[in-house]
Amino acid sequence: MRTLYVGNLPWATTEEELARAFAAHGEVLSARIITDRQTGRSRGFGFVEVNDADADRMIAAMNGAELGNRVLTVNEARTRS
Length: 81
Hints:
4-stranded antiparallel β-sheet
């Protein structure tokens, strides 16, 4: 399993929409959108957990792709230190 960072998400994107966008290019294990703790609004980025074998293909397909008229930034998530 690998975790992909997805930046520049439209504010109204749901986790289901995020998973569906990536599912066209491989198996999505989970998707989550990071929200502000106080307001509950999306912070405009999220993470998608995918099968190891599909990760590179998904990054190539989705980095620079449009979702809701915004150009996504997709790369492998860095681990917290």
